[in-house]
Structure formats: structure tokens, C-alpha cells
Amino acid sequence: MPKKKVSQKNIDINRIKAVLADKKKTSEDLRQHFGVAQSTVSNWITNKIQPSVLTFYEISQFLDCDIRELFISTKGKQ
Questions:
Q1: Which of 5, 22, 36, 58 is the most exposed, having the fewest neighbouring CB atoms within 10 Å of its CB?
Q2: What pTM value is reported for the model?
Q3: Contact of 71 with 13, CB cutoff 8 Å
Q4: Number of C-alpha atoms within 13 angstroms, CB side, residue 5?
């Protein structure tokens, strides 16, 4: 059975925004820590673009959380 091709658009992959709120941090805190444009962080937290795996790791270190907390579970989804 061929794999269904999924477009990255319209798919929420990360939970960066939720974890920021849980950790009482803001997108500005994340922007300043990484030295990136506010639009970059905005795109990350709205799932318009995804950070690299290394950046996800670094975000997890900044937020003092398990990297898995930054992702939406796919378990049980098809």
C-alpha cells in the first residue's frame, strides 16, 4: 500500500507555543536566546515552518524540558 503523501501545511507538528506558556516564557525570550528574527520564532510557534532537529534540541534545553514535550503525539493518528 503506497504511503500517503502529507503536505506540511495545515499540520500542527510542534507544541513550542504551549511549552513556552507552561514554562512562563515568551516568544521574545526565545527570540533573544537564539538571536533570530521575531518572524522566525512566530513561524515556529504557529507551525508555518519547523526548526531543525538540532534547534528543537536547543529549545528543549532552553525550556528545561524533554524534547518530546515539544512535539504533538502521532500515536493513534493515521
A1: 5
A2: 0.83
A3: yes
A4: 1
